[in-house]
Amino acid sequence: MMSLDEWNSPMVKPQAPDSVLDRIISILDTVKRAGGTISVTELAARTGLPKSSASRLVADLTAQRYLRRTDDGVTLGLRLFELGARASLPRRFLAAAAPVMRNLRDTTGERVGLWVHQGTEMISIAAVAGRLPMLPTSAGMRSPALTTASGKAYLAFCADRGIVDRVTASLGHDVAHDFEDELARVRATVLATDRGVSYPGIVAVASPVLSAGSVVIGAISIAGPNGAIDLERVAPLVRSASTTLAHRLAAA
Amino acid sequence: MRTAEWTDTVSVLDRLTAVLEAFDRSDEGLGVSELARRANLPKSTVSRIATQLVDQRLLDREGAKLFLGVRLFELGQTVEQPRHLRRLALPVIDDLRNMTGRTVHLAMLEQDHIVIVAVARALHSSLPTARVGDRLPAVGTILGRAMRAAQEHATDGCETGDDDIACAVFGHGGAPVAAISLSGVDAAEAARVHGTLRAAAMTLGRRLKAGRTP
User: Fold this and answer.
1) Per-residue pLDDT tens for B86-131?
2) Which end of chain A offers a freer environment for a tag, N or C, measured as fewer CB atoms within 10 Å?
3) What residues contact A65, with CB distance under 8 A and at least 6 apart?
């Protein structure tokens, strides 16, 4: 059984990053995915960086508190916690979304998630527990945009064609065509569904969340056990939650 | 011996830090000029860096305004010590806020500074208050002073100020690892709530010792 982290990893192993900024991000991301402490040796192996470079960067990042030294290596540092607390989009989005999410959970009984996009993935910035137990990582969890309901809801309304292209880049011609057809259906219904593709046994329904300028900033979703959710009943509830959220964001 | 690459790395990271730290508490967002002014960097440099950072979602862009990005939020959620502390403490500080009706803060100590890890706001308070993620010199806060006093074994770990009171939370080995405070309490009320606050700190200390060490 794959771990959740492996399931969420990109299929292609990334090349060793080029610019210093890319290296910094690669290191921070790798430490994050390690989920605790990681040795510099292991960090170098996973990022593809020469050990001497990794060592130097780790020393600099530690000095500036992006990383913290532990007995067995390094872990993410408090500076990231401080900066993360000041990240504005999640905070404004969350403030507007909290009551909408709770209400959606109350009316559907299912787990509700709030997602924003990054690269070819969706990041969960909040989740309200429903019937399904919370997955091991809650806020901060990543899911592939290609197959998840939240990802498809986002991509269907994303004005930036480049983002959609990046996600579909690895698909064969026919599959890509089918995917575009599906996105068109998502646009027509303002709803996206994932019937056990991303996570076997779990069905999810999502609707895009639009900001004041009609720009899609994320998605709101419900997820529950396959076969036990009445999609006809819950789908309109998800769509109306996303409309409510859009109004709240516009009013804020 | 410093090589050119070493210097490069230091300056890239310094610039990154200057840009990220230029953002403050407000939700307003910053334009490139304002960001450059606050970061004390040339506008052309900041413009170039901002594009790269937006690409990586360390910054988010909305129109002409830049904000700290969702990737920072994502990374911040994963930092172990505050996450572990929050998970154990949130029910305790929620209870404490409900019992006392006062705003509760929880902070951890990192050398000379404290970092606010959790806040349970008093329902009817409109006072501005320290927020999660704030980093403050320890000596300037009741939370920091309580932890310092506990380190020097000077008190039972509790400190009273003009309008607040804090108690240290002890972890493994009897060292203070955090502190909880109540705000907006005068001397008389501080005396009344002292026992409740200290009990909450001890509860949290027990939970920390029972769980795995972060």
Assistant:
1) 889 988 998 999 999 999 999 999 989 999 999 988 877 767 788 8
2) N
3) A77, A78, A79
Residue B131 in contact with partner chain A when CB distance is under 8 A: yes
Distances (CA, A) of A150 to A48, A116, B200: 31, 9, 40
Residue B82 reports pLDDT greater than 50: yes
Report ipTM for this prediction.
Answer: 0.91
Residues of B within 8 A of A83 (CB-CB) are 20-21, 23, 68, 72, 75-76, 133
Give pLDDT, residue A85: 86
Q: Compute the half-sphere exposure of residue A68: CA atoms within 13 Å on the CB side of its CA.
A: 19
CA distance, residue B191 to nearest chain A CA (Å): 33
Phi and psi (nearest 5°) for B116?
A: -75, 125
Model pLDDT for residues B171-205, shown as the tens digit of each residue: 888 889 999 999 999 999 999 999 999 999 999 99
Put simply, the answer to whether A24 touches B13 (Cβ < 8 Å) is yes
B65 interface with A at CB cutoff 8 Å: no
Using one digit for the tens of pLDDT, what is the confidence trace for B132-172?
A: 899 999 999 999 999 988 988 766 789 999 999 999 999 88
Q: Is the model's pLDDT at A137 over the cut of 60?
A: no
79-118 in chain B: CB under 8 A from chain A = 79-82, 110, 115, 117
Q: How many contacts does A have with B, using Cβ atoms within 8 A?
A: 133
Q: What is the pTM of this model?
A: 0.74
Query: Secondary structure of chain B in the HEC alphabet?
Result: CCCHHHHHHHHHHHHHHHHHHCCCCCCCCECHHHHHHHHCCCHHHHHHHHHHHHHCCCEEEECCEEEECHHHHHHHHHCHHHHHHHHHHHHHHHHHHHHHCCCEEEEEEECCEEEEEEEECCCCCCCCCCCCCCEEEHHHCHHHHHHHHHHCCCCCCEEECCCEEEEEEECHHHCEEEEEEEECCCHHHHHHHHHHHHHHHHHHHHHHHHCCCC
Considering only residues A69 and A166, tell me which one the structure prediction assigns the higher pLDDT.
A69
Q: B176 CA to chain A: closest CA distance, Å?
A: 18
Q: What are phi and psi of A40, to 5 degrees?
A: -65, -35
